[in-house]
Amino acid sequence: MLPTVSIVIPCFNEEKHIRGLLEAISAQTYPLHLIDVTIADGHSTDRTREVIADFQRAHPDLKLQIVDNDARITPAGINRAVSASKGEIILCLSSHSCPYPDYVERSVAALEAGKGDNVGGVLDIRPGAETWIARSIAVAAAHPLGVGDALYRYASSAAVVDTVPFGAWRRSLMEKIGGYDETLLSNEDYEFNARIRESGGRIWLDPAIRSIYFARPTLRALARQYWRYGFWKYRMLCRYPRTLRWRQALPPLFILSLLGGSLLSLAWPVYSRLLGFELVSYFGILGIAGLHSAMHRGKIYLVLGLPIAIAAMHISWGCGFLWSVLSAALKGKRLS
Asked: Burial letters for 97-114: b for 16+ Cβ neighbours within 10 Å, e otherwise?
């Protein structure tokens, strides 16, 4: 017999996306009577709950419940939703996502085949708005210069990896290693996967498991997102320093080099030339990437939009990481 699946969704003010996500779940190729959905809502102040209620009335065949996420943070929402659900397999989705029709079926098949203890797939990143900068952000969010070796953004072959988005795992795994860490306001999924690996488990990425993900619609929203990623990455690394990857070290090192070069150039003019060379080289590389993407996709706005978006990602992530280091140092904490 096929196992039962509990889909858990942390949610807050998602009236724009939640209907599409629920429609995608109801269209899954996996038997619908074996699926239940639990949405942990952080007391949304928009029409999110009304949209969910409308969907429930139109789709009584899908078992769907809403629980309150009083903490209003993602890891607490996931834990609350898991506790309220009963399926043998837990499948976590973002309220900004829209899984392909065979998403659940392929995830369960990978688990049943023993491919990994947590399995996930690749994000098909779409713009969060119909503007040139939103479209540029979506391209940047899947570009190697923007995300480094984060294979879940663009992988074409299955592999064992460090982390996956919106994973699927057996409930017994969570009972073994514990739930999501509610002291982390971001990077909670990476920390969860780190504990899986430390317990001897495997994280499996299969590009055939796909979901649409809507990127942030504006530069301001993108910068806030990546500042948060950088800030909480350091807090997570304080517990798991061996999980640091080269792509995560580059943005804060880049920011430090800019700050150091600026200070040194005040006393020694040669450093101003070195700083200028660094900036010209950096934006030159981004400009080439933008030109290449514009020619490849036939979208002229990417010549400017892609470099701006990637630079916003790098600078925000690096500054958030360094601010986390500084604030932790002032409180007497350090990476060990």
From this structure: bbbbeebbbbbbbbbeee
Pair 124, 180 in one domain: yes
The pairing of beta strand 118-126 with beta strand 63-68: unpaired
* Whether residue 125 is found in the same domain as residue 247: no
Nearest to 288 by CA among 267, 315, 273, 310: 310
Domain check: are 167 and 304 in the same one? Answer: no
Q: What is the pLDDT of residues 184-233, one digit of tens each?
A: 888 888 899 999 999 999 999 999 999 999 999 999 999 999 999 999 99
pTM, entire model: 0.86
What is the tally of structural domains in the chain? 2
Taking the C-alpha atoms of residue 100 and residue 78, their distance in angstroms, rounded to an integer, is: 21
What phi, psi does 281 have (nearest 5°)?
-65, -45
The DSSP bridge partners found for residue 119 are 168, 204
The CATH number covering residue 133 comes to: 3.90.550.10
